[in-house]
Write a structure and sequence with these properties.
The complex is a heterotetramer, with two copies of chain A (113 residues) and two copies of chain B (142 residues). With 113 residues, chain A is of the alpha/beta class. Chain A contains four helices and six strands, in the order ββαββαβαβα. Chain A has one domain: STAS domain (Transcription Regulator spoIIAA, 2-Layer Sandwich), CATH 3.30.750.24. The relative contact order of chain A is 0.19. Chain B has a five-stranded antiparallel β-sheet with strand order 1-2-3-5-4, covered by helices on one side. Classes of the chains: A alpha/beta (113), B alpha+beta (142). The structure holds adenosine-5'-diphosphate (2 copies).
Chain lengths: 113, 142, 142, 113
């Protein structure tokens, strides 16, 4: 499990490599929070290209980040979600309730978030 | 005659074992030549039930988790149980978004995911005694 | 304090379960962040011992195979046992190229591979009662 | 697990995709024997590029094929063996005893077998 970041305009782009479950989610949450506090950005965009497993612990991580970005008037985005993980997002109503918006690429996410 | 196979696993209630449990079940089920989607659904459902045993059943204290998997032709039955604190109100627990641990950033979607990804999910729980989740899925691949 | 974890598996003596057993052990051990080589060595050794239980222990009849794995810091201990026919002469069985089943194209290299890939291999066997193989390996990765 | 073949000069080239253990070895053995009997070739060359696991059951398969090719005055070769599997070959003395010869590519195997 590996978390890396970069900042582009008002967005913190977070790339996670590995699997998101209860075990890894604690470390993922901490790392993202620390970086978000440090950076002067509004939005968080998740790069999901290298995540091949996520259970509902990942939904908890997203909902938690939603609370953080809202305090700064920011939004959440995600791109390159594989079909199986997409179903977990759908099930949880995260797209429908506009908690996080799905995009097909980083460029699309940055221009439309 | 129908094809049969079965296995049982027991392991400590450590969060490290969530990945172990789902990979072990996936490896066992892979003898049925499941689709990528089926394997992914089973892994996710197992991960949810095992995580619940770790977080809610034993509340991060040490305990043992029991998992069994049987195959009968193309039917997979997975049982995951703990001897932890149990669930007072199972139907409330199964509601989407209900969680007793929002402070841990749980989403309350665990049971909903299990139900969506498996054909049947049964929950048996006795307060103070433990919880057993039985999940069944018929694979299309055979 | 030292890190500890443990798991136990039992499964039917079917050849399909050879792959299951080695993948399950690999998934359990992977929490120690082993090298690719270490994982491969452990998988191969587990495959040898489980295969022996299937072919020689139960001679393709139905029986149950028991596997346990414990981790203490960077030490992995794996025990694989069967309640099958047992080994009359363990030291002869451990000799390279000795096999009691040449007609099945067995190479007689199973124990030699286990010994080469693990730090220690103990074999306890009682004719008519069963066989237990205990293997230990200290990982360099921690 | 998948076994495919082609013939080049006097060689049957056998490509196995998957893992070689006791479970798969029975099927692998049968398929190779059937093809070797059918084809009018001397040698068998194994393409190991897509084998990521092999235990001593694979050694049994090689030793069995050695018996078959010897009856026709043929030889065994193998190429693209990964380092872990190479150790199993070494341990068993298959190279040392000239039961099978290792090559780095198909071309090298065909010219030197
Ligand atoms: N094995 C268990 N032992 C005790 N309580 C459990 C167990 N599994 C689930 N629960 C209860 O059911 C609730 C809902 O579970 P779930 O839908 O998986 O959501 P979450 O795990 O996100 O809380 C949990 O919050 C917990 O109160
Ligand atoms: N679990 C077991 N039960 C009974 N006999 C066994 C068992 N494991 C090994 N043996 C005996 O030891 C011999 C050598 O084993 P091994 O070195 O693994 O070679 P192989 O499996 O190729 O025969 C076997 O041929 C068998 O006679």
């Amino acid at each position: 499990m590996n978390v890396s970041y970069f900042v582009k305009r008002e967005n913190l782009i977070v790339r996670i490599i590995g699997e998101i479950d209860h075990h890894s989610s604690e470390m993922i949450r901490e790392k993202i929070e620390r970086e978000y506090v440090r950076q002067n950005v509004k939005n968080i965009i998740f790069d999901f290209s290298d995540i091949n497993f996520m259970d509902s612990s990942g939904i908890g991580v997203i909902m938690g980040r939603y609370k953080s970005v809202r305090e700064r008037g920011g939004k959440l985005g995600v791109y390159s979600v594989n079909p199986q993980i997409d179903r977990v997002f759908q099930l949880s109503g995260l797209y429908k309730n506009k908690i996080i918006n799905p995009y097909s690429s980083l460029e699309e996410a940055i221009s439309n978030i | 005659m129908e094809y049969q196979n079965s296995m049982k696993i027991s392991f400590m209630s450590k969060s490290q074992n969530e990945a172990f449990a789902r990979v072990a079940v996936a490896a066992f089920v892979s003898q049925l030549d499941p689709t990528v989607e089926e394997i992914s659904e089973i892994k996710t459902a197992v991960s949810e039930a095992v995580t619940n045993a770790v977080i809610h059943g034993y509340e991060d204290m040490e305990g043992e988790i029991f998992l069994s998997c049987t195959i009968k032709d193309n039917l997979v039955e997975i049982t995951i149980s703990d001897k932890g604190k149990g669930i007072e109100d199972v139907s409330r627990a199964r509601e989407p978004l209900y969680t007793s641990k929002p402070e841990l950033e749980r989403s309350g979607m665990g049971f909903t995911v299990m139900e969506a990804f498996m054909d049947e999910v049964e929950v048996e729980s006795v307060k103070g005694t433990g919880t057993t989740v039985i999940m069944r899925k018929r694979l299309t691949s055979i």
